[in-house]
Structures are given as C-alpha cells and as structure tokens.
Amino acid sequence: MDHHPYRAGTGASRLPATAGLGLKLQHAEEILTTRPSLGFVEIHAENFMVDGGPRHHYLSRIREHYALSVHGVGLSLGGMDPLDEDHLARLARLVQRYQPEAVSEHLAWAGHGGRFLNDLLPLPYTPASLQRLCDHIDRVQQVLGRPIMLENPATYVRFSKSSLMEADFIREAVRRSGCGLLLDVNNVYVTAVNHRLDAQDYIAALPLDQVGEVHLAGFDEQADDSGAALLIDHHGSPVAEPVWALYQGLLERTGPLPTLLERDNNVPALNELLAETGHIHRLLHEADHHASNKEHRHA
Predict the structure, then answer these.
(1) pTM tops 0.85, yes or no
(2) Is the alpha carbon torsion for 296, 298, 247, 229 positive or negative?
(3) How far lies 150's CA from each of 114, 129, 233, 273, 296, in Å?
(4) How many Å apart are CA 280 and CA 237, to the nearest integer?
(5) Could you tell me if 218 and 239 are in contact, meaning their C-beta atoms sit under 8 angstroms apart?
(6) Quick check: 159 pLDDT over 70?
(7) pLDDT band (50, 70, 90) for residue 194
(8) Strands 211-216 and 149-151
(9) Do 232 and 220 meet the contact criterion of CB atoms below 8 Å apart?
(10) Per-residue CA distances from 217 to 1, 25, 95, 136, 267 (Å)
(11) CA distances from 183 to 149, 209, 266 (A)
(12) Torsion over CA: 21, 27, 28, 31 (sign)
C-alpha cells in the first residue's frame, strides 16, 4: 500500500489528506489497471455485508493499493429504537476484515419499530435526542474498538421542538462521544439554502479540529410550495460552484483534509470523475502552499 501523510487532529481517521473517490463496481477493473492518483477509496458498508462475491473480489485487490474509508448508511444512530445489534455485528466483521483508515455514519435515523425505511431522516435537536445519539455512538465505538466519524445531514424540514442549532448539536455530540466529524460540504450548502442559513457561519460553528474526512457531491434544485429554492442532496451531478467555493473557504481555515468525491446516481465514466478529483487535488495543493507560507510568516 502506498504511504501518505495522515491527517492529524482526530483519532477517528487515518486517511491521507488527498482526494478520494467512492468505489463503484463498474470502475473497479479500470482502477486496478490504471491505478489513478487517488489517496483513498470509500465504500458503503451495507453493500459489502456478505461473505464473498465480486464486490469483495475487487475490494480486496484495490485495498492493496489504496487507503479505505467505510461509510455506513443503515445504523440509524439518531433513531429512538435500540441499535440493531445484528447489523452492528456485520459492520464489525467488515471492519475487522479490511482494517479501514476510517469508519463513518450519518446523523440521521432510518428505522422505527423494527421497520427499516431506507432513508436518512432528520431528528429533533433536543437534549434527549443528543443523549440517545451519544449512547448509540458509544455502543458502536465499543463494538468496533475504535472511534467513528459522524456526518452532518442534508435536511429539508426543521422540528419546532428543537432547542439546539444543528451545528451546536453536532459539536456537543462530538465532544461527548469522542467521535470525529465527517464534514459533508454539499450537505452544509443544501441545508443552508433550504433553511435560509449562512453556510460559512454554520461551518465556523463546527468542531473543525475534529474533521477526519470531507465529502463533496452534487445536488438537484427544485422549488417548494412557495416557489423558493429547495435543494435535494442526490449525488447525481458534478459538484456545484458554490459548493467548491465553500470547500475552498473551509481549506483556508483548516489546511488540507482527506476529501471524497461522491457520485451515487447517474454515475459517469471514471475519467469524468477523475477530472473532479483532479480539481480537489489542485485545491488541496493550494491550501497546503497557503498553510506553508503562513507558517513561514509567523516563524
């Protein structure tokens, strides 16, 4: 496996501070043949909760050359039900098998009353839901024997009973549980537009020293009943210009961070995705150069 400098500041991630790509089976053979300049690949955990088959065949080979991030979508960390221990055990076996540099899950719920809803749903930001979330994160970290990262959501509704702002809720969850933060910049932008928030203020309120990975993706623009813009996090288009700008501003605050390009719908040819990861590489290089110059000025 190639050696890369690892991001300092969070024990939840040992990913290199370079560009990564979500692994899609249709690209696996080409990735093995051409070995593109990627720091890491990311998989959705639930797609690999089987013992064998083509997915594991390719991932085992790709893992020899790239760092790995395992991203879960089904644990329902924010749900009212107890965690699904069978699901958690399958995740633990996957993590044990591949020893990834990072493991992450969403700030969301996906099931209730024993029924899985196949969606990432929002939760009210209250002291009770915060405690339940932290208890669930603690259980996951106990079973895995390692800290995980929590991803900020893209939301379309807000609960009237919420007593905490989303960024404050996330910051407190990270502090209490000791988990890291997976900062999805597209989700920040989607949420900010949908709820008329300032995206830069939102990011500034997060625990940026605990960011172990960044996600970038595309959104779909629709309209609500009043005709106002409603953005949908659909991962089916290139990263939009305002999201690139928000990401560049983030790097000016933090320096280089492990950054994943997500594309889960309308997935194009690998070379199109590599054009976007190439742009990530350039922005990371600029951020590294900026940070170096800043250090020299203060030396």
Answers:
(1) yes
(2) negative
(3) 23, 15, 17, 25, 34
(4) 16
(5) yes
(6) no
(7) confident
(8) unpaired
(9) yes
(10) 27, 19, 25, 27, 12
(11) 9, 11, 23
(12) negative
